[in-house]
Amino acid sequence: MGTNTDPDFASLIDDLFVARKAVEETPPRPSVPFDYLSVADELYSGRIKVASDVAAAEYREASETFEAGFAALLASLDALASERAETAEELPPIDPEAIARELDLATARASADFSRLRRNFAFHNHPDRVAPHLRQRAMVRMQVANMLIDDAKRRAAKAGKR
User: Fold this and answer.
1) Of the residues 68, 88, 108, the one at which a domain ends
2) Residues 25 and 58 occupy one common structural domain
3) pLDDT tens digit at each of 162 positions of the chain
4) Which pTM value belongs to this model?
5) Which residues contact 156 (CB under 8 A, 6 or more apart)?
C-alpha cells in the first residue's frame, strides 16, 4: 500500500498499477515441468536402446492378431451379403399412381380427411421411421404423397365452390 496511513482512492489505484507492472515484468513459468529438447537429445544420443528382436516379435504378434480379426470380419461381411441376396426386399413404390392408390384419395372430401390421410401415410412412411437404407426412398415417397394430397385438396376446394 501507499505511505499514507489513511489511504485514499487515488493511492489505491496507484498501488494496483505498480503491482500489475511487477506481475507483468516477471516471465511466465513454463507449464511443462521438463525440457523437450533434453528428452529429444537423450533419444538421439543412442544411450536408450530398444531391443529390436522384442519389438519385432510384438509387431508380428499384433499383425497376426489383426490379420485374423480382419479375416473374420471379411467372412461375416460375405455371410451378410449372401443373406441379403437371398432375402430380396420388396421396396415400396415411388410411382405417383401407386402412392395415390395407397392413399385412397377418392374417399377424402373434407380438409380433415386429407390431414388424416397425410398423418397416416407419414406414420408408416416417414424417413425417420424407416430403416436407414430406405430413407432416401421414403423421402421421395413423402414428397410425392404430399404433392398428391395437396393437389387433391385444391381440387376438392374448387369442386366445393361450384
Assistant:
1) 88
2) yes
3) 445 566 788 888 888 888 877 666 666 666 666 676 777 777 777 776 666 777 777 777 777 777 777 777 778 777 777 766 555 668 888 888 899 899 988 887 788 888 999 999 999 999 999 888 889 999 999 999 999 999 888 888 888 776
4) 0.46
5) 108, 109, 110, 114
Residue 104: strand, helix, or coil: coil
Q: For residue 59, what is its C-alpha cell?
A: 509387431
Cell of 58: 510384438
Question: What whole-number distance in Å separates Cα of residue 108 and Cα of residue 155?
Answer: 11
Residue 1 inside a domain? The answer is no
SS3 75: helix
From the list 101, 81, 82, the residue with the least C-alpha distance to 92 is 101
Contact partners, residue 152, CB within 8 Å, separation at least 6: 105, 108, 114
Distance from C-alpha of 139 to C-alpha of 125, rounded to nearest angstrom: 8
**Same structural domain, 13 and 74:** yes
